[in-house]
Amino acid sequence: MGSYSNPSLMSRIQTILAGQNDNRVSDRSRPSRQIQRHLSADDVLSVIAAYEQGATIDELATRFGVHRTTVMAHLERQGAPRRCGTVTKNLNEATRLYEQGWSLARVGDHFGVDGETVRRALRAAGVTLRPRRGHHLVDLQPHLVNRKA
């Protein structure tokens, strides 16, 4: 084989031919495909009732063992009113909490939404946002980013 051979491939072939384990991941250790779970009619009614009582989509997805888009699809099919604009409706409180030092994620948890939803609402309202953790280092020291190693 000489200088044109792949040494790692050759050593693996020699190991296999010698009857030793080649330390490769077997097909059986790979994760299986996702199991599709269908909600019964009673489960769908329970999802809607819990949502109307204030449960979040993520909580319902975890509770019923389905993806969040499945929960949203069931809510839409049943005509349940979607909660939207929660942060916008409570913009003064969200701004006050954020300016008191709460993180976007914490404000989001307070309103039952994602932190990114809070960030978009505050930004649209013209609220000055704090720099994200670690992003200010790149902005302050651009010469370090372009430096050749």
Question: How would you describe the overall organization of this protein?
Answer:
This protein is mainly α. Among the domains are: 37 residues; 66 residues, no CATH class. It contains 10 helices and no strands. The longest helix has 12 residues. The chain is flat, with a radius of gyration of 26 Å. The chain starts with 6 loop residues before the first helix and ends with a helix.
List strands and helices in order, with pairings.
Elements: H1 7-17, H2 41-52, H3 57-64, H4 68-77, H5 86-89, H6 91-99, H7 104-111, H8 115-124, H9 135-140, H10 142-145
Helix pairs in contact: 3-4, 7-8
Sum this structure up briefly.
By secondary structure, this protein is mainly alpha-helical. It has helices at 7-17, 41-52, 57-64, 68-77, 86-89, 91-99, 104-111, 115-124, 135-140, 142-145. 55% of the residues lie in helices and 0% in strands.
Strand content: under 5%
Low-confidence stretches: none
Number of helices: 10
Instruction: List the helices and strands in order.
Output: HHHHHHHHHH
**General shape:** flat
Name the average pLDDT.
80
